[in-house]
Amino acid sequence: MPYVEVEDGIRYYYEDVGRGQPIVFIHGWGMSRKVWERQVVDLSEKFRIITIDWRGCGESDKPSHGYEISKLADDINQFIKNLNLDKVILVGFSAGGAIVMDYVTRYGGEAVIKAVSVGGPVPRYTSTEEFELGIPQEVVKETVDALKTNRPAVLRNIADGTFHQDVGQPMKDWLFHILLEQSWFLEKTMEDLGKIDLRGRLSDITIPVAFFHGLHDKNVPISLSEHSAKNVHNSKLVVFENSAHAPFIEESQKFNEELTSFIQFPNMDKIPGQIQ
């Protein structure tokens, strides 16, 4: 089974399909590489598709530490180095989008040449008096507290609330069972999501970034991606009008087409905050 050690004794499980330019997919909070099924199947004829289970998720190791967003971004950096990847496209969903954005503010331009945040809670997930676009801090605290007392109920709500379209109960059950594989310590990542603030680092991003977001997303307000796209120099926003939090599932064909277009389009140098 393919594993990469990202830290002494901590291994990431991954799957590697196809040939060509590498796209590394990073799933959302508590999920696994399995959510990228339609991307693996549809894009592996053109690209090398690498899907990972991050620390505490899926088949990767589940230690009691290292669940901060910045640490997970460090893990991704080590993963890319250990596989000797170059000219990487980095794609992250939800909390994975926060990991991607933290990564590109510190490591972008080394091995990763473009990045995509899909429904990412960036630049800041929670609202403040001077930043009203996020969700209330109390919501994050309530979620963390509920994870400690009734984790299955929280995961069930996440699975059921991910979609806008009527995807059917089997799809929701599938996502719920993926979430059940997570580490008991992942509440630490949820806590950290309530604290991170990348607003002051958006100007540090030197590579092209696309923000993909479902119009009906109730988990992460689309206003966050709108804000980020306007404040990242070399960026664009793509809105999925028939999706909520997971457009790569609800509108997989459009998602894959938009991703392919973003990868193949020349770098958008000196074009601030394109909106699409």
TrEMBL record:
The keyword Secreted does not apply. The keyword Hydrolase applies. Residues 22-151 form the AB hydrolase-1 domain. SUPFAM superfamilies: alpha/beta-Hydrolases. It holds the Pfam family Abhydrolase_1. GO terms for molecular function: hydrolase activity. Keywords: Hydrolase. This is Pimeloyl-ACP methyl ester carboxylesterase. It comes from Alteribacillus persepolensis.
